[in-house]
Amino acid sequence: xxxxxxxxxxxxxxxxxxxxxFASFELNDPKLPRWIAEHALQSGGYPYSKRLAEDEYKEQxxxxxxxxxxxxxxxxxxQERIVIVFEGRDTAGKGGCIARFMQHLNPRHARAIxxxxxxxxxxxxxxxxxxxxxxxxxxxxxxxxRSWYNRAGVERVMGFCNEDQLADFLREAPQFEALVARDGIxxxxxxxxxxxxxxxxxxxxxxxxxxxxxxLTPIDLAAIDNWDAYTDAKEDMFRFTHTTETPWxxxxxxxxxRARLEAIRLVLNRFEYEEKDDQAVGKAxxxxxxxxxxxxxxxxxxxxx
Length: 305
Fold this sequence. Notes:
Layout: H1 16-19, H2 34-39, H3 54-78, E1 81-88, H4 94-102, E2 110-113, H5 120-123, H6 129-132, E3 141-145, H7 154-158, H8 163-182, E4 185-193, H9 196-208, H10 218-223, H11 227-241, E5 248-252, H12 256-268, H13 278-281, E6 289-290, H14 293-296
Parallel strand pairs: 1-3, 1-4, 2-3, 4-5
Antiparallel strand pairs: 5-6
């Protein structure tokens, strides 16, 4: 674990590291396996054994959303532009983070973009072209629920692109983003990561909740068997596209409440604006947010290059 201590589970609970139960997990079984339920929150080395209390979460969220409105007023006045890219494993909570960003902002000047699969026309275009048209004008902010990094993740894992296309992307993405940044756009690249047991728990929740089942796609289902492939993909992505000019920030999001607060806090802390309440904004929780080796790589030092 991040704090050097192993999580304690209830007497008799099996550990997935010793029971090797991942392969036997049955999504259609309405009963969630006990070992998943008990290990989910602290899976993947998550440092907290309990979720943030709801009252504390709501109080902090309200304060941060007030600061977001101040920031929006600031960028309208200064004509700055903000782009926030949200990437991460399936079920990591990208949509929930974006929803909390957008909840009280003026929608005329803040947009969330979640593109469907490319059309035949878009497939014949420059790869980045379909994303460029959604970049913000002066005074606006745009949040991408997945982005051009589809190529480095799902397209790679699911075989939707070939090796040459992937290599071209990993070489060209930093160049493209450098152009965006040099044009004055404030670009944030946020990757939400979760433990394997937590992903299984959330997939199971979606499968057996009629109000959430629409969120479950064939791509999500494929994630169950492609955990290691997605790990390799994200680590290569960090290795090639984490730059000084456009860095990645990873947020451990087993607890969605903490992750949402950290994502908002990350953006607010980059700006100085009128009547900013530094105490309300607070400081980053370095146990769950960062850009170091321990956030990018899953205990594979040789992958860091």
